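Customer escalation, tier 2.

The customer says the design service returned an amino acid string that "doesn't look like it belongs to this structure." They asked us to rerun it and document both sides in this ticket. The original structure tokens are below, unchanged.
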């Protein structure tokens, strides 16, 4: 009897902790099936596009897997690079789990939350971005698309870039 009560108390404490994490990170209701924020997860891999990635969370809701990406900073509208990073996670989930992913969610520090549809237009643009990136790497013709020195220093393409800020 005492052991049963103990298990019930532990179970309620874990549910409350999960609820607080979801509220803090503005994660929609549903079961968290993947979390790269509170534990280390294996990256998802796409054979079709030869890309890999790890969304911050995946929430299962109404039979759908929904990627959730948490972003630092403040934003009045979703940034394009964040939208296509999220689109890549949508694709990775579809390819790895064989399910349809209707949308993903971007959450910014200033409590802005954006539901980004993974529709045919976004799918097409994602494919073109990946093809363009592959072309740039293959031809070694990589140009900077910003004037931010902080971004330049930590850029993954820095070694290949022909016009660094610093």
């Amino acid at each position: 009897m005492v052991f049963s009560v103990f298990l019930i108390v532990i179970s309620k404490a874990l549910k409350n902790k999960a609820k607080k994490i979801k509220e803090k990170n503005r994660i929609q209701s549903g079961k968290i099936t993947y979390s790269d924020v509170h534990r280390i997860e294996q990256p998802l891999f796409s054979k079709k596009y030869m890309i890999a990635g790890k969304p911050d969370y995946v929430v299962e809701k109404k039979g759908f897997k929904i990627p959730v990406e948490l972003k630092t900073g403040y934003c009045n509208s979703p940034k394009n690079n964040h939208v296509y990073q999220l689109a890549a996670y949508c694709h990775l989930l579809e390819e790895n789990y064989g399910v349809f992913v209707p949308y993903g969610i971007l959450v910014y520090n200033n409590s802005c939350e954006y539901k980004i549809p993974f529709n045919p237009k976004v799918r097409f643009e994602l494919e073109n971005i990946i093809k363009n990136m592959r072309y740039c790497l293959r031809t070694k013709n990589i140009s900077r698309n910003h004037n931010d020195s902080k971004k330049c220093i930590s850029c993954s393409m820095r070694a290949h870039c022909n016009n660094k800020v610093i």
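Tier 2 assessment: The sequence is consistent with the input. The chain has a mean pLDDT of 86. DSSP finds four helices and seven strands in the chain. Sent an explanation to the customer and offered a walkthrough call.
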